Amino acid sequence: MGKLAERLKQLPQGTQIYRLRDLPKLLVESSQVDRLHTLLLDFDFIEAKVSTLKPQSLIEDYDLAFTPDLSTSGEEVNRKVNNLRLIQGALRLSAHILEQDKTQLAGQLLGRLLSYEAPEIEAMLEQAKQWKGVPWFRPLTPSLTQPSERLLRTLSGHTGGVNAVAVFPDGQQAVSASDDSTLKLWNLDTGEVVHTLSGHTKPVLSVALLPDESQAVSASDDGTLKLWNLNTGKELLTLSGHADGVMAVAVLPEKRQAVSTSKDGTLKLWNLNSGELLRTLSGHNPEYGVMAVAALPNGQQVVSGANDCTLKLWELDSGTALRTLSGHNRGVATVALLPDGQRAVSGAGDGILKLWELNRGTALQTISAHIAGVRAVAVLPDGKRAISASWDNTIKVWDLDSGAEEFTLSDNAQGVRTVAVLPDGKRVISPSDDGTLKLWNIDNSKGSYSPLLHTNKVKAVAVLPKKRQAISASWDNTLKLWDLDSGAEIRTLWGHTNGVCAVVVLPDERRAVSASDDFTLKLWNLDNGLVLRTLSGHVSGVTGVAALPDGQQALSASIDGTLKLWNLNSSKLLRTITGHASPVMAVAVLPDGRQAVSASWDGTLTLWSLSSGKPLRTFSGHDGPVFTVALIPKRRQAISASADKTLKLWDLNTGKTWRTLSGHTNFINAVAVMPDGRCAVSASADNSLKLWNLESGQIIASFTGDSPIEACAVASDGVTIVAGELPGRVHFLRLEGV
Question: How many helices (H) and strands (E) are present in the chain, helices listed first?
Fold first, then answer.
């Protein structure tokens, strides 16, 4: 521990808070910038300040440290400042996590900074490794988003998906609209919520700022628009008139007027002073909703996009459609104007972007942009580039003249619903399905780091305990074999033609069986990565697989609602087990090899006799699909993970629930039991891993990734954890303090 940090911790609490808050500023004011640099490289000071004050307070200290210290050489200052910027960036990326759980500080810093070979950072991380405050997950590899990547900050606060965002002209604030029926006013510099605007009764789908920036108008699925005072967070007006949900709203630049679009197939023009409906614009196919609208700078025209696959250019004074723009073959979801007001870019469910010349109604450019529908598009201030967000979980930047893709943001871009460009043209903000907004740097000079990636979600992981290796299964159609201690990739296993959903290692640790959405299972030689056998018989995707203790047989689970018992030596199907009325998501075999437990989409589990194929017992209690099941052999218990956000412990002899574990805030995708049977690790769509005490039902430790965690496994040492994340990352972690 640094001497200064040690002295601070010895102060009375009130004095400690004061000193922690003000010391960095005092050091700058007394021309002791070099001492401030040293302080901000001391993990003990960093931990003391985060545990006592808000993370943002510490983040702002680093801004003070970028003042040059004239007593030190320029090269040394530049080196220190660069290291301090990296630490600040790591803290900014972790701020929304640390606000909720300050005990994750050491894990977050290690996961984001382990790749940097700088003596000061390495020394700080060595301090972090020694932290013993509570049990925690220590990353062994740099598997979290790095501060040198494009992601700058995550804003967390909504409890539902975020549908829209409007950015203030100064780039310092933004307003978001959410499925949780609220809007939030954000300070983008600090990530803090300034106001929460409540009043809608259904999801808020769109929001637009008025020119004076003190007011905003929102559109909701409740069929209304609302005018808000952003200074007070109070509602000023409610505008009613649509016969269905209001999908989008645009404000006319020079007027106190707004235009809305609706599922009812119309657009409406409103007076924002009185709330009066001025005009209804009809012309799109009334059976299809109008999804998007943008106002031209002249204040006399708007362009709309609808699910009837067309765009229309409207004259507001007459309410007539001047022109219909056709070319998309799926519904138009989004439209954005170029700065000249003469051209627009549209995005549709066909994955296509089109650049239009509005006066002539002709397409100037057609870009095959995404492999799934386009959800949103925005134009950069230079008018030369556009940025699109898609259902394929990517954000892409395009050159509009050539139609060429400049780069893709795929990591941490899951469930992006819309995108907005900040006035500097270097940053964008993207709201997403998980209730967060992400702030990105899209400057071309920004670098990127890609740690341990599959190219699609990691659906399963398993450990080879004797070899100290791990294997991951991914929707990129591959499996990868890893060194458990270093996280180095050993080899990639190719052979499946669709996503790999599950994998089990056989007792000899030389073979593994994988289950795939291509309807097959494959038996692999792990020494050379070759396929030994392919097992075919399911008529839908295979979601789970478990090996029998003899290593000669395997049991598979499938979307087709069956389980199948296989002879691995001959590829022979020994038995088909039926009984579930819904897809079977996972299966686990008891140590005696005579019984198995399956988990189903119907919310139940079933205990089966493998000799007869008959059900012995059904376990009911979850309120949603059960995604996975693991066994606690010493107790003859099972633990299940569900979409209802809980885990349940079951007594296999009685079929009764022994305990329900609550603490995750989203689907639980996976669970793994520790070798001693006293604890378990769960992986969730809330981005977290949690370590549970099964006796008490209490959470012992948490680790939060940057996106949903899909899979987890525990090594035989009881402290090494492997986890798979949605973008394709594999985490290698060690439990400390347990």
Answer: 8, 56
pLDDT at 446: 55
CA proximity to 642, closest of 620, 658, 659, 625: 625
SS3 47: helix
Question: Quick one: how far is CA 325 from the chain centroid?
Answer: 35
pTM assigned to the model: 0.92
**Residues 482, 285: Cα–Cα separation, whole Å:** 55
Q: How far apart are the first and last CA of the chain?
A: 22
pLDDT tens column, 697-709 = 999 999 999 999 9
pLDDT-based confidence at 738, cuts 50/70/90?
Answer: confident
- Angstrom distance (rounded) from CA 224 to CA 84: 48
Q: In whole angstroms, give the CA distance from residue 105 to residue 86.
A: 15
10 Å Cβ neighbour count for 116?
Answer: 20
369 vs 351: CA distance, rounded Å: 6
Structure tokens at 43: 């993990």
The contacts of residue 570 (CB under 8 Å, 6+ apart) are none
| Amino acid code (one letter) for 727 | P
Residue 327 zone, left/alpha/beta (φ > 0; ψ -120 to 50; rest):
left
Could you give the 3-state DSSP secondary structure of residue 392? coil
pLDDT digits 0-9 by tens, 283-308? 999 899 999 999 999 999 999 999 99
Q: How many other C-beta atoms can be found within 10 angstroms of the C-beta atom of residue 26? A: 11
d(C-alpha 346, C-alpha 306), whole Å:
11
**Interatomic CA distance for residues 305 and 311, integer angstroms:** 4
Residue (of 305, 300, 296, 323) closest to 377 by Cα position: 305
Q: Could you give the CA distance from residue 238 to residue 225 in angstroms, rounded to a whole number?
A: 6
| Backbone φ and ψ of 412, nearest 5° | 70, 20
| DSSP symbol at 125 | H
- Strands 332-337, 343-348: pairing is antiparallel
pLDDT of residue 10: 65
Q: Would you state the structure tokens that stand for residue 403, as one six-digit string? A: 């139609």
For the chain, how are helix, strand and coil distributed in percent, rounded to 5? 15, 45, 40
What one-character-per-residue DSSP string does 260-301 give? EEETTS-EEEEETTT--EEEEE--S-TTS-EEEEEE-TTSSE
DSSP symbol at 661: E
